[in-house]
Design a protein that fits this description.
57% of the residues lie in helices and 0% in strands. The protein is built from seven helices and no strands.
Amino acid sequence: MDPYTSTREQFTNSLISAPIPDNAAPSWKKYVERLQVLLDKLAHHPAMAPNLQQPFMTPANSKNKVYFEWDFVGRTLGFMHNVNPTLQNLSEKEKETWEDAVGRATFAKMLILDTKHGALNTMTEAAYPDQSGQHPEFGEEILELARHLDDD
């Protein structure tokens, strides 16, 4: 896929439709399946509508917290696909990538669920000052997916 011509929706569809190998380790499978569902819900959230049909590398029309999480979750899922899904005989680089991806999944959960302190709002506003005070709600479906992202 060419990031300069393929849309964010095409990248999303590619990531969420990637098959899970039959020999995937339960932990790898759990994270990938849950991140795929979460990424799909984030991509089709109303706050992503201005961005979804843009080429991936084009600056987003609306750099809101849903866009930020969509990007973060998508990259996390991409990291997971760079690790042997059996989680066996991993190289040092794969071990580091796997640990980083699991940590990112936990961080994504924290950012989505942290409505009290608003860490994601603060991060979004710091990077994109024009988003000050403009924070779309994720909605209960995304919150519920995030709650169970790293459950066993």
